[in-house]
Amino acid sequence: MIVVGVALAGSLGAVVRFVVDSALRARSGSSLPWPTVLINVIGSLLLGLLTGAVLFHDAPAEMLTVVGVGFCGGFTTFSTTSVDSVRLIVARRYGAACAIALGTLAITLVAVAAGLGLAAVW
Amino acid sequence: MSEGERPLPRALHLRPSALAAVAVGGLLGTSARYGLGRWFPVESGGWPVTTFAINVLGALLLGFLLEALIRIGPDTSWRQVVRLGVGTGALGSFTTYSALAVDTDLLLRDGYLLAAATYALGTVLAGLLATGVGIALAARLGERRSTS
């Protein structure tokens, strides 16, 4: 049964990502693909919180599987970030490409640490 | 309503058909990632090879898909449905950034510094390379198609 929950939660995560990303890209005057960065950071913060809830407060592991692996996994995306970075490299915007590729990694690591930390002191 | 007053087309992300394509793709991509994670589990403290492989494969396929679609024609009709369903939905949700970040932080927390660094930087670099390979493959196939 849990596989159904994971699949549905992942589907919902993908739809929310699509709507948020499209809405932000339409409004954004920036040529940088920052909406995907934001999505990955928010999803990582949420997964950090959930992981912390299981590690430090014995929250049910099924919740982590459905919301974490399902929703957060479907909401955040690695492939789009990779394509965004390569497109910047092709456009010879090396600084921007580095900022998106390594910046996303650095900020999501901080977001997860913040989520784990918040869960620990809750 | 006269011809000049036709309303603007609805934004893509508000169209039911676009949302349905992403939802179905998301269902399949997430299920595939979850299934692979169950078949090839990585023990706590281990190098997360399954998520690495998923992310790199997904990056290659998305690079290939988007480049191929651009070469086939404009982002309309079936090409747009494929881009949203297979690209944004399936490959977008097959790959994941949150698991990459959490697994890296957990490796760091448990003192596996080398594993954390090689996993995080290795995924990002291999992902960029894989995307480049995917784009180059689609470009090559497109050239062969147009010259034959």
From TrEMBL, chain B:
- Family the UniProt entry places it in: Belongs to the fluoride channel Fluc/FEX (TC 1.A.43) family.
In its UniProt entry, the species of origin is given as Rhodococcus rhodochrous J3
What does UniProt list under activity regulation? Na(+) is not transported, but it plays an essential structural role and its presence is essential for fluoride channel function.
For this UniProt record, the keywords arranged alphabetically read as follows: Cell membrane, Ion channel, Ion transport, Membrane, Metal-binding, Sodium, Transmembrane, Transmembrane helix, Transport
The superkingdom of the source organism is: Bacteria
Segments passing through the bilayer: 12-32, 52-69, 81-100, 112-139
Q: Does the keyword Amino-acid biosynthesis apply?
A: no
What name has this protein been given in UniProt?
Answer: Fluoride-specific ion channel FluC
Which annotated residues bind Na(+)? G92, T95
The membrane topology of this protein is:
Multi-pass membrane protein
Q: Which gene is the coding source of this polypeptide chain? A: fluC
Q: What does this protein do?
A: Fluoride-specific ion channel. Important for reducing fluoride concentration in the cell, thus reducing its toxicity.
User: Which compartments is it annotated to reside in?
Assistant: Cell membrane
